[in-house]
Amino acid sequence: MDTTPSASTSTSATLHFTVTDDDTALAVGSGSLPVLGTPRLLAWCEAVTCAAVEPSLADGETSVGTRVTLEHQGASPVGRLVEVTATTSYADGRLRRFSVAARHVEVGPEGPVPGKVVATGEVTRVVVDAERFLGRISPAPADLGD
Length: 146
Description:
This protein is an alpha+beta fold. 18% of the residues lie in helices and 44% in strands. It has 3 helices and 5 strands. A hairpin with a 2-residue loop joins β4 and β5. It is globular and about 50 Å long.
């Protein structure tokens, strides 16, 4: 996985992933076929939004996902290179909304080029102070079965 945002600004990012056996619907429990599973694709979409927002974060800040819509439109077999992009569509204070798209990468005579779109959607993130956020979470109760 290439985790370096391709854009010099914090408003967009692009990551590349190669579908492996561990990414399939069969492996992640979302189906019975050896193709890219929607839960893994969703995780990739969140990862690219994190990469897009990261440069704008102050020390101690992070972002949390709060809403996702995703339309998985096409199958991606094991071995397929997938490009996932995120572009800021709305920002207001701590709120960041991203348009996301995933597409196959085709190798042409002049190198890799974006191919068939396999998913589109939107991911909303909110910028938070990491320490304050974690301080508001109650610890999980101890396992009473032990």
